[in-house]
Amino acid sequence: MTTLAMPEPNAVVLSRRAEIVAALRAIVPGEGVIADERGMRPYESDGLTAYAQLPMVVVLPETTAQVAAILQYCHANGIRVVPRGAGTSLSGGALPLADGVLLSMMKFNRVLDIDFANRAAVVQPGVTNLGITRAVEHAGFYYAPDPSSQIACSIGGNVAENSGGVHCLKYGLTANNVLGVELVTIEGEIVRLGGKHLDAEGYDLLGVIVGSEGLLGVVTEVTVRLLRAPESARAVLIGFHSSEAAGQCVAEIIAAGIIPGGMEMMDRPAIHAAEDFVHAGYPRDAEALMIVELDGPPVEVAHLIERVEAIALKNGAFECRISTSDAERLTFWAGRKAAFPAVGRISPDYYCMDGTIPRRELPKVLARMRELSEHYGLGCANVFHAGDGNLHPLILYDANIPGELEKAEAFGADILRLCVEVGGVLTGEHGVGVEKRDLMPEMFAEADLDQQIRLKCAFDQDHLLNPGKVFPNLHRCAELGRMHVHAGATRFPDLPRF
């Protein structure tokens, strides 16, 4: 049972558990409902395993009609619902509720349509990120966003968290590569937003849904943008004697007008862990390692590689190794892609953070994180998307030692406060979930949060979809519409009241 503050379980709902399970089995027959403790155990947490909670029941629908019927039933009976993809979320976004239905979308695993003429594919939300590229690469196309967990994470989860990846600097996050979705509201209404066309008229509701962390509806279909694979791609492996020098190199590459396909950075602990795990040929004497990939026509790539190398040497790089084959380029990336599991080999536990800062603040933030590491007495390995300032510090701890988890959480909270302090934001791609929920006031004023909750209320007035996530304090929708009267007068008396 998690010690994290979550919404109080509804005793009335829990008392009706048998009736609810039976109703769900009528909607999803066969093996689509899991109600025994052992069967539900794999669903007790997502990738943020520090927090766990068994759900009341797990349901695995296979059709949009079943999803609509489940949500309609839950809405009519006041039952909370937690949508879940592959469970790779690192922010606790899919943490179950004791009185809630965990709605797993992993049986929605088909590619429905591939339209090369319109450079689009229609897929179900349980299709893996890498699965989309695998379905279209034979024709020279691919799907650009590539989180490190792309072999396992689902496109539905990517939509919920607005995931990025190593190539998001040039090609954008999920929000920049999703053209449309089919969505089921908490009332069971099936809605389509966007499509294969480039833009839709009216409000940007698609932009609201992407990154909404399961709070507004359940996505049952996704239309994604396909890109032509670049003619060529080469990577440069660059070693520095200091993280500050590497950070300055990042800033100067972008300032020179060069937009790499990917630009990643790792510090010494992460370099050693990845090298021991993958044997990618990383320089062990480097304090910071950069991988910069350029893609496009061969002539352009060759020219940009020279410019990047010159900027790196100017900033004190002691090693610049340029890939001479596609196999070598992929080897450079293999270590970075495996950095998270690699760090898992050097520490009993680690806490993966996610924050974003302005690129110019990179040297300052790295120096401050070293100070925090010494203050808390915990190691920290850094891997991050250097090009867009998206940091992924991995805080090393041992959950078997009393108090170490709490120290790791405090260390992580200080890193996120630092991100906001230097002009950044709490998250770049992992989402807020429960991990950053109570830090939202560090970034947003009360009025800002109230406005965000009003949007939530427009989709889910009773707060049945994924409650307890994102917002530090839940307000009833009626509370947000309250009218203040002072000295016998309301504010803005000239505005009409309804």
From TrEMBL:
Keyword annotations of the record:
FAD, Flavoprotein, Oxidoreductase
Molecular function GO terms recorded: FAD binding; oxidoreductase activity
The record, for InterPro entries, names: FAD-bd_oxidored_4_C, FAD-bd_PCMH, FAD-bd_PCMH-like_sf, FAD-bd_PCMH_sub2, FAD-linked_Oxase-like_C, FAD-linked_OxidoTrans_Type4, Oxid_FAD_bind_N, Vanillyl_alc_oxidase_C-sub2
Using the record's annotation, list all stretches that form the FAD-binding PCMH-type domain: 51-229
Q: Which SUPFAM superfamilies match?
A: FAD-binding/transporter-associated domain-like, FAD-linked oxidases, C-terminal domain
Per its UniProt record, the required cofactor names are:
FAD
Name of the protein = FAD-linked oxidase C-terminal domain-containing protein
Organism from which the protein derives: Methyloraptor flagellatus
